[in-house]
Amino acid sequence: MLEVKGLRFGYVLGQDIIDNVDFTIGEGEFIAVGGRNGCGKTTVTRLLMGLEKPRGGKMFYDGEDITNLSPADRGRFIGYVFQQPDRQMFRPTVAEEVGFGPEQLGYTKAEVADITSKALAATGISHLRDAYPPTLRRGEKQRVAIASALAMKSKILILDEPTSGQDGKETRELLELLETLRATGLTILLVTHDMEIMAAHCTRAIIIGYGTKAFDGTPEELFTARDDLFDLGLTKPPCVALAETVSGLGYCKSMEEFEAKMLARKGRS
């Protein structure tokens, strides 16, 4: 679906912060993009969206070179939820905000209304259709931004640190929504520092470090086979660390899985 080849970028001439990054993203993946602060993980996603211009390398979507494609044109297949989603909202109501993209694509008024209603329903915010976006909670604003991406029929959804500053309930509800959307074939890219989310929900992790792509594989491979997690700004999630202290228990991607395995072991004893 989306392929990146030899991507290079830097803010200062002659100083690349990202050099020779390659990866391919497929349909229905749930990918964490991680690394220490300042490593360039958000920059990589901004490059994918066209919000930054690379110094070198190419990007392809379904085989078509999109390296020089504008963010507006990429918005037809990539949705982006900023860390502060209110920065991307400018219409007076939620429904008008979600319907803006389809309007620009030339859909009729009736078609826009239908697309908007379906996107609001899919994200659980139909009751907010007449609300003024700036007055919403952050979690609700995120859902408006996600609904806007769905209204554009985006195939890839990028979220930048969506769970930072959220309480446990908001985080669980957002992750449940993302899992539901992924089940429909939507690809999710999640920029995150949360190792527990990376282990429990993501099918793949791309870690930016040492000025390039330092790791690309499953969370299990990352947390069990790498000995440079600290250097990459990462830590083992508690569920993984605890499981390693119990002989023969195996990898646990969440505390729920750890508890279930321990109870099952106790039941057999």
Describe this structure in words.
The protein is α/β, with parallel strands linked by helices. The protein has 3 domains: 1-77 and 155-229, Rossmann fold (3-Layer(aba) Sandwich); 94-148; 237-268, no CATH class. It contains 10 helices and 10 strands. A 6-stranded mixed beta sheet has the order 6-7-8-3-9-10, sandwiched between helices. It has a 4-stranded antiparallel beta sheet with strand order 2-1-4-5, with no helix packed on it. A hairpin with an 8-residue loop joins strand 1 (2-9) and strand 2. The radius of gyration is 20 Å and the shape is globular. The mean pLDDT is 92.
Shape: globular
Radius of gyration: 20 Å
Uncertain regions spanning at least 5 consecutive residues: none
CATH class of the largest domain: Alpha Beta
Mean pLDDT: 92
> At CATH's second level, what is the architecture of the largest domain?
3-Layer(aba) Sandwich
So how many helices? 10
In what range is the share of β-strand residues?
15-25%
In order across it, which strands form the biggest sheet?
6-7-8-3-9-10
User: Superfamily at the CATH H level of the largest domain?
Assistant: P-loop containing nucleotide triphosphate hydrolases
Which structural class fits the helix and strand makeup? Answer: alpha/beta
- Tally of separate domains: 3
Sheet of most strands: 6 strands, mixed
Q: Helix share of residues?
A: 25-40%
